[in-house]
Amino acid sequence: MNRRLFLQTLRWERTRLLFVVLAGVGWGILMPVIYSQFSDALRSLANSGALPEELLNFGSGSLFTLPGTVTLGLQHPMALALLGIFAVGAASTAVAGERTRGTLEVLLARPIGRVALYASILVALLLIIAIVLTAILAGMVAGTALVGIGPQLDTGRVPLVALNGFGLWAAFTSFALAASVTFDRPGPAMGISLAWLLIHYFLEILGSLWTDAAWIQEYSLLHHFNPTEILTGVPDPIDLVVVFAAAIVPILYALYVFPQRDLAAPA
Amino acid sequence: MEGTPSPVVISAHALTKHYGSVQALTDLTLDVRQGEIFGFLGPNGSGKSTMIRTLLGFLHATRGRATVLGLDAETQSVEIRRRIGYLPGGIALYDSLTGEQALDYLADLQGREPHRRAELCERLELPAAVLKRRVRDYSRGMRQKIGVVQALQHDPELAILDEPTEGLDPLMQQAFYRILDDLRNEGRTVFFSSHILSEVERLCDRVAIIRAGRLMALHDVADLLARRRRRVMLRWRGAAPDPSTLPGLVDVQVDGDRIVGSLTGDISAFVRSIASPSLDDLTIEPASLEEAFLEYYATDEVSS
Asked: Can you tell me the distance from the alpha carbon of B183 to that of B5, in angstroms, rounded to the nearest whole number?
């Protein structure tokens, strides 16, 4: 890993990171507020039978409990957008973008091996993902305190939620970065990375809405990040294994493929 | 280059690079010696950049082997890049950085102090005020100057420059040529690609010509220039002498009192032969390197 390249990668992203962190904290605060304001009403609605409960759930989350709300907040498209900016956007363009611009050639003219270059970018992006995830969770903890429902949240289990969430987003980040070292242009790299994220999202949401197809959720990485189970004291260790394995496989692929690739002159 | 030959800095042996059915380089063999400026000439798409990128480890050779500074280009490219300076063709820089930040960043990544930066910036007319501007505001020529500085600021043993004068105005080209002269005088080696023969003539000790990925010729520039023909025009008072009595003069055309032809071989014998009070005017124009090459290729094609 190259320290200067690592720091510069963070520097390229600092302004965007600042705004995303602020948005993440805001989003995190909003979730407990929504729970405290609408949970009872939604519960009544579900009990009345006016709406099937599946429609009031969102993936593995719901607004019926605070842990369910935390899950909903972390699976919501807003969270996906906040984290996807880096896990998909920044990661998929990190190498392919440099290649298209021609700056990869200038970088690799220095005494930096491709593995070191890849590792520097990967570690910087994973750090950014950890910061954004922490911001969202910190916002949620702050939000529960703000609306006076702090005791409903077992904050001692939040680090495990963070670890599981980090594993999930590390998987999407490493996939996008693997795509970035594979393609010459950022367009295809971003397209396939976004598709990968949306496929998992689609499987998770479809399985939650259509009970007969609930089994397909097992194939979604998002399903293996279930803060409700963690916060209620029944975490499934397999979830951690699955998300971290999904992160490691693209890393191994990239470490093999990137040094083997020919880097012809940019078009 | 008398006496012990200088150490070989770049060596390519039967270097071959294929992209599928496209043969970008075919059995390219050459050596570049320490302390020389070596020109690598060829038209666009001839394989110049492919050769350079293979030397730097960006491309993996299909066959053959290359070493740079005694290190294997395939397996020791990081160590090679620690000791060289490289200017890519049409260099791209980070638009959001200032010129100074870009140079600092690249020097940091190089891991060596940019000892020569101040001198290079002065010679290439890059004052501090310009370096404080963002790269996105630079003209092409300014970017090229920054590219030259980033390649040489850490005083590398070997500079590999891909079309280095592209975008430089004539004055800056001259300044750049003087920088390369100084590098040579300090014992540094320069390998540069170009398609401009006049700059190769001005700078290079040796030149390789590449066409369609194949090495067509490898010459000592001084030899090539010494062997070239010169255009000669003589005018006499009265009748011109029999041209066959003038040694080395070929392709002769006699037009009254004028003789026009091409001079080959020893110039002194020719000058002695024309010494006469009847000689009214004499013009001897050296053929450019371009003409020398055309002549070389014409001969080559005829003989083949």
From this structure: 19
For residue A235, CA distances in Å to A164, A215, A229 come to: 10, 19, 5
Alpha helices in A183-236 (DSSP H): 186-209, 227-231
- Segments of chain B scoring below 70 in pLDDT: 1-3, 287-304
Residue of A nearest to B109 (CA): A110
Per-residue pLDDT tens over the stretch A102-134: 899 999 999 999 999 999 999 999 999 999 999
Q: Is the Cβ–Cβ distance between B113 and B121 less than 8 Å?
A: no
- Of B170, B115, B123, B124, the closest CA to residue B143 belongs to B124
DSSP B25: E
Q: Which residue has the tokens 């890849």?
A: A118
Residue-by-residue DSSP string for A43-100:
HHHHHHTSS-HHHHEETTEESSSHHHHHHHHHHSHHHHHHHHIIIIIIHHHHHHHHHH
B244's enclosing H/E stretch is none
Q: Which residue type does A56 have?
A: L
- Mean pLDDT throughout A12-26? 96
Residue B90: which of A102, A109, A111 has the nearest Cβ? A102
Using CA coordinates, name the residue in chain B closest to A4. Answer: B109
Question: How many C-beta atoms surround the C-beta of residue B295 within 10 A?
Answer: 17
Three-state DSSP class for B250? strand
Q: B75 exposed, middle or buried (CB, 10 Å; 0-12, 13-18, 19+)?
A: exposed
The sheet carrying B22-33 orders its strands as B22-33, B8-19, B63-68, B71-72
Contact criterion met (CB < 8 Å) for A105 and B88: yes
pTM above 0.80, yes or no: yes
> How many pairs of residues across A and B have Cβ atoms under 8 Å apart?
67
CA–CA dist A64, A61 (Å, integer): 9
Rounded Cα distance, B21 and A265, in Å: 18
Q: Quick: pLDDT tens for A210-241.
A: 888 889 988 999 999 989 989 988 888 999 99
CB of A7 within 8 Å of a chain B CB? The answer is no
Cross-chain Cβ contact B59/A264 below 8 Å: yes
Who contacts B60 (Cβ-Cβ below 8 Å, separation ≥6)? A260, A262, B54, B74
Q: What whole-number distance in Å separates Cα of residue A255 and Cα of residue B47?
A: 29
Dmax (CA) for chain B in angstroms is 74
B88/A102 Cβ within 8 A = yes
Per-residue tokens: B269: 């014998």
Residues of B in contact with A110 (CB under 8 A): 81, 106, 109-111
Mean pLDDT score of chain A, rounded to an integer? 91
